[in-house]
Amino acid sequence: MAPSTAIPGLFFCFAAMVLLIFVSVSPPTWDRVSFLNANQYSFGVFGYTGSKVQVGYYFPLPGDINTTILHNLTFVLILYPIAAGLSGLAVLFGLCGVGYHRAGTVFMSFLAGLATLCTFIAWIISMSLFGVVRDRLRSNGIGANWGNANWIALGALVALVLGFCTASCGVFGHYRRSRTGR
Prior knowledge:
Blueprint: H1 7-24, E1 36-38, E2 41-43, H2 68-75, H3 79-99, H4 102-139, E3 144-146, H5 149-170
Antiparallel strand pairs: 1-2, 1-3
Helix pairs in contact: 1-3, 1-5, 3-4, 4-5
């Protein structure tokens, strides 16, 4: 019988992994998920609509949005795919924890905590970055709106917090095999 205390942590880590993968494939790869929409551009983790895939980019719009600080903050968005990878590893260790051994649940809890930290830092920076860009674009008369990747990332953050808490509680589940043959 699988230790039922590890299953909720596994579920939340899997949900967060899927959400973080959606955020990570934002523009220029997939335009349906973006952090900021301005004119014909959608901005994502690895660039914007029509750009090549790259880590760190300048904004293609006029105004005072191409400062060194804002450009450097786009490099930090790489934390989203890193958090997705950590969540994926947490799911793999969670499967080990659900299958048999407590060590899998311990590692799931540890990796979920690391993924939560990465996602929290990335979410705070992306909200700040795109909030500043949005305000500067609007002050220049350019229409700019939040994209859905901000809220998908927030959902992943909440799922990771719940996954970390439930995985930490799952460490204390009953993992000993019953001895019915004796």
